[in-house]
Amino acid sequence: xxxxxxxxxxxxxxxxxxxxxxxxxxxxxxxxxxxxxxxxxxxxxxxxxxxxxxxxxxxxxxxxxxxxxxxxxxxxxxxxxxxxxxxxxxxxxxxxxxxxxxxxxxxxxxxxxxxxxxxx
Length: 120
Known about the structure:
This protein is an alpha+beta fold. 38% of the residues lie in helices and 20% in strands. It contains four helices and four strands, in the order H-E-E-E-H-H-E-H. Strands 1-4-2-3 form a four-stranded antiparallel β-sheet, sandwiched between helices. Helix 1 crosses helix 4 (88-106).
């Protein structure tokens, strides 16, 4: 299991930026399959790591990391998406664990915990 997680993180980090999927209005090139994805910046590396059962739909519905990249004044040509597809059976058993461990290892700046309004 540890090997699979490190392989996924390595893939998401080491995929050449030019092989990542560019940001666009309709997210052409994104898969409708489940997987772990990374929003990456050309020079600042990982901005966000997430998981989705349908990656294309996840982005069509809006994504906070894309908004935050815009607010940080990043050029849209310098932000892209790396994807590691996971078959549905693995998705059901591994996705949350994989995402959590990858977040701990990589600490991307746009993955933050937003406190609940009612917490002291």
